[in-house]
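Hey Z.,

So I finally got round to the N-carbamoyl-L-aspartate thing we talked about over coffee. Here's the setup:
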Amino acid sequence: MDAITITRPDDWHLHLRDDKALNAVVGHTAAQMGRAIIMPNLKPPITTTEQAIAYRERILAALPSGSTFEPLMTLYLTDTTSPEEIVKAAESGIVKAVKLYPAGATTNSASGVTDIAHCDGVIATMAKVGMPLLVHGEVTDSDIDIFDREAEFIERVMKPLLASHPDLKVVFEHITTQQAAEFVAAASDNIAATITAHHLLFNRNKMLVGGIRPHYYCLPILKREQHRQALLRAATSGSPKFFLGTDSAPHAQGDKESSCGCAGAYTAPVAIELYAMAFEEMQALDKLEAFASLNGPRFYGLSPNTDSVTLERREWRLPESYPYTEGQDIIPLLAGEILPWALKA
Ligand SMILES: NC(=O)N[C@@H](CC(=O)O)C(=O)O
Ligand SMILES: [Zn+2]
Ligand SMILES: [Zn+2]
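And the result:
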């Protein structure tokens, strides 16, 4: 196949940050995606509908002129989020989901939930009004190895949560393990998952063999090959439960290439190209459209985009960096490398 045309994709898990960083990155996503679910882990986090509406306005203002990209907003769940705030969010039509960050699990999760028991009433309200819960699924207990934190989350948090709230819509975000892929596939229809391009393309060797490569450090951390294979099978299985979520998570070069580097891979400029590489590895390019453009809107109760994008088989070299904030560049994943697929302008 030398070209593939699909319904324009959406990104169901994206970090856009704010201010100068927002201005630097939003165009990369808007050039490819029709819509994106915007993560609320700003400093301070987006915890109210009012803040989500204001953040949405800042995103729209930062878009290149003429762009029709649509940001879909989320709230950051805390120990003190009220059921009233959830009702308000649902009625706004602007807030599409609520995000659970276990406190301390990832970037800007300090205000996250310390114990999900604190949120039982709020989650019951979410189930009642049909507001999806998006989950960063890792336990944070210091005795649990970083490579086991997602699998352990399924047992300790996800299963009890779904048992108490069987009608709750849940997206298990950025799944990275065979356990998560199998759990979601076997769960009821109201449970889905996003999968990143980098977890489909790379195992942990990419990050650790021949030198430590900080741009491959993200959370949940890259796993061993067995897990990558399970994610590839899930993404290309044709199941509507799995859809595209890049988790493109920009951090300044200096914050990544550091003695204590931040977690997050910046993939927005080449998101759909990277997914095409992964699907081609499975000889499943015919499954790309459902994963990238149809399954997500279906889960969120939205229509697919009405226009399309075309990928051409044409080698091109990704830039080494892009301008980011004052005096800082951002390094995309696969910076300076040759990619086999190009998005037709
Ligand atoms: N994925 C990451 O490694 N980082 C994300 C947070 C997240 O999605 O967990 C970020 O905001 O930088
Ligand atoms: Zn996360
Ligand atoms: Zn994320």
